[in-house]
Write a sequence for this structure.
């Protein structure tokens, strides 16, 4: 996984690329069931992700209200043994629910998701 993080740091994405870029463009969370099936133009790290066994991914937009409404994107890869779409959706819903609660409790971070 460290190789993947380093590749991401060394190779900035173009606007709209990757799961995180799609979340920004669509203005809400974005989920991909299997990143290994994505086109190289849309997901420049597809070969490395495939080599490392990364599959399902979800990205969500966050807005920090305490420092001038700066927006961030959090990208999460789901465990590789979650191949069933129902399991993936349940985990994604759990992650979003947890993020929503943490953001509401913080008072400084807003979760930007589609309801």
């Amino acid at each position: 996984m460290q190789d993947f993080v380093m590749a991401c740091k060394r190779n900035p994405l173009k606007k709209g690329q990757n799961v995180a870029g799609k979340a920004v463009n669509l203005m809400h969370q974005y989920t991909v069931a299997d990143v290994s099936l994505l086109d190289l133009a849309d997901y420049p790290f597809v070969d490395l992700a495939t080599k490392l066994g990364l599959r399902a991914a979800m990205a969500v937009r966050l807005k920090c209200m305490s420092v001038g409404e700066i927006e961030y994107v959090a990208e999460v890869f789901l465990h590789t043994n979650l191949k069933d779409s129902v399991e993936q959706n349940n985990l994604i819903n759990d992650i979003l629910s947890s993020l929503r609660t943490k953001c509401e409790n913080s008072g400084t971070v807003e979760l930007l998701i589609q309801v």
Observations:
- The CA atoms of residues 65 and 108 lie 5 Å apart.
- Helices lie at 2-10, 18-26, 46-52, 85-106.
- The chain has one domain: 2-112.
- The two ends are 31 Å apart (CA to CA).
